[in-house]
Design goal:
globular; Glutaredoxin; alpha+beta; 4-stranded mixed β-sheet; 5 helices; 107 residues
């Protein structure tokens, strides 16, 4: 199991914005993942890295343990769990998501 946790940690640490989701940014496989991708794109995320948990059962099974968050999608910015779809949408509507995204792209 530790190798899966290490893989998750590598994904989170290697990219400023990571969305663990069902499907891909181009072809989301659930409504929550789709809405999260739309909010991120609308907030200006050009370097959005996604991980399709449907293609990797080990990550799908272990990510909730790693993040202590039970559902998908899961958004990480600068290595920190931001939350799922609802939180991502709330941050987008408040303008906070755009600020967080712009900080990742200016570094």
């Amino acid at each position: 199991m530790s190798s899966v946790i290490e893989r998750i940690q590598t994904e989170v640490e290697s990219h400023p914005v990571v969305l663990f989701m069902k499907g891909t940014a181009q072809f989301p496989m659930c409504g929550f993942s789709s809405r999260a991708v739309q909010a991120l794109k609308a907030a200006g995320a050009t370097a959005l890295h996604t991980v399709n948990v449907l293609e990797d059962p080990e990550i799908r099974a272990n990510l909730p343990r790693y993040s202590n968050w039970p559902t998908f999608p899961q958004l990480f910015i600068h290595g920190e769990l931001i939350g799922g779809c609802d939180i991502t949408l709330e941050l987008y509507e408040s303008g906070e998501l755009a600020r967080m995204i712009s900080e990742t792209q200016s570094q």
